[in-house]
Amino acid sequence: MSQSLDRDLVLTVNGIAYPVSVDHGRNLLSVLRTEVGLTGTKEGCDDCECGACMVLLDGQPVNSCSYLAAQAVGREITTVEGMVRDGELHPIQRNLLEEGGVQCGFCTPGMIMSATALLARTPDPTDEDIRIGLSGNLCRCTGYAKIIAAVRRTAADLRGE
Amino acid sequence: MLIASTLDDALAAVAAGARPIAGGSDLVVGARHGKAPLPASLVAIDRIAELQTVTETADGGLVLGAGVSHHVIETHPVITGHFSGLADASALVGSPSTRHVGTIGGNVMNGSPAMDTGAPLVVLGATVELRSTTGTRTVSIGDLWTGPGRTAAAPDELCVAVHLPAPPPRSGSAYVRLEYRRAMEIAVVGAAAAVTLDADGDVASISVALSAVAPTILAVSGLTGLAGRSVADVAAAAAEAAAEQARPISDLRASDRYRRHTVGVMARRAVEAAARRAAGETIAVPVNRALGIGAVAATPGAPS
């Protein structure tokens, strides 16, 4: 059934349904941050260049700065807040900390979402796969090497090695 | 906004003046940058099942639903195997997120002269299926673009599919792009080639098209006389013709002189790669990465 949407939408974020009332032109990023109240997802360039706003939509990475909130209705949105389970950091979060892949931290939520999408489809990535998987995410602090190391280690952890 | 679940609902909305939106990677980014305001009426077409399909036809051709994403194109074994030039192009678009939300229909209808999929679609002989509530017509891809961001589609017509004819035996295609960085890049210039080889390994037919050197994707003319000559001769002649026929502008990414020179280099490389594929060699998609064309990777472990 086609759906005609007015201002009232329900967004499913990290498994929880959030009713919001927004203009149809609002981007998903601003609705997540100011209506839903989850500020882990960051606004960097607002131009699909930097990846700080990356979220998962039905498991696939999407720049939420340039995606309309209304188009996310009926889809499963995952943000960095959804990565923690039972108070435990997800292995990608723990490994980013332990490998020194976080400095200012602004890019980190987006890196986590891109890495999660990558590892879901490529459980044993080469370094080139990791570079391509993170190619929509800019980091101005770390020089990337430690982020790539953290993703490599997480892949091994998730494979049970 | 209407979220359409059927093509009929989408066509009715477009006929009533709604603008179609799939991933929004052109429309929303453009609106947020003040290029054009977001249309007041939108119809989301990304949940229409029949627009998402890749169908092989009985004679070896392919029908790509307009909503097929770059990610599907860059990973689909039939496309990477037999329509490799198109897969080369989709694999270079944006980043993984862009390739998940960006669609072939959106790329074609946005009509950017720098679009990556345009040149390979031209050399592969694509036609575009446009549908409205009153009928369907097909337009050759070269006739679709009428200027930067402009197409021959009527306001009530929706692009529903891109059709690719079966590639001839002993043929191959490739798309190469000059770029300054490996991701989130727009072509400085680009070139696609489709080559068919004869039994002696010489060129039986050749087609070349160029990105980002004219108001629309440019098909290089005058190459038919090259049939029967060696790949090296044809690559050199195609490079010369490409540089000669290019009508580039100067902008922040490159000067017109630089574009004119480099598009010839890209054309030569595209012909060489297409000919190697035509001879049966497997060159991984995208050619840019497999052959080290364009921006090169940083040395692993080195500061970037």
Notes on the protein architecture:
The complex is a heterodimer of chains A (161) and B (304). Chain A is of the alpha+beta class. Chain A is built from five helices and six strands, in the order E-E-E-H-E-E-E-H-H-H-H. Chain A has helices spanning 28-36, 91-99, 108-121, 127-133, 145-158; strands spanning 3-4, 8-13, 16-21, 54-57, 60-63, 76-78. In chain A, strands 3-2-6-4-5 form a five-stranded mixed β-sheet, sandwiched between helices. The radius of gyration of chain A is 16 Å and the shape is globular. Chain A starts with a strand and ends with a helix. Chain B is an alpha+beta fold. Chain B is 33% helix and 22% strand. The radius of gyration of chain B is 19 Å and the shape is globular. The chains are: A alpha+beta (161), B alpha+beta (304). Chain A binds chain B through residues 1-5, 24-25, 27, 46-49, 51, 54, 60-63, 65-68, 70-71, 73-74, 114, 117-118, 127-128, 131-133, 135-137, 143-145, and chain B through 1-6, 9, 21, 23-25, 28-29, 31-33, 38, 42, 44, 46, 71, 94-98, 100-101, 182-184, 297, 300-301, 303-304.
